[in-house]
Amino acid sequence: xxxxxxxxxxxxxxxxxxxxxxxxxxxxxxxxxxxxxxxxxxxxxxxxxxxxxxxxxxxxxxxxxxxxxxxxxxxxxxxxxxxxx
Length: 85
Fold this sequence. Notes:
The chain is mainly alpha-helical. It has helices spanning about 30-40, 45-55, 60-65, 70-85.
């Protein structure tokens, strides 16, 4: 990150520019943050749903009603079973 006043490089977490003393403000966009968190949390939902539907023959509605941790445990079991010789 660089100072908007003088262009000097800033250390992470700096409150002021060491070269010119300009104060820094951190900008936080709660909407962008929340959307990124949701995107990350649900990145694997399609793969999990496909694996469970293929592995157990469950319907999508049933799979999506499972708690995330339980869904992931079942997926891990399918992956482990498929990796056996």
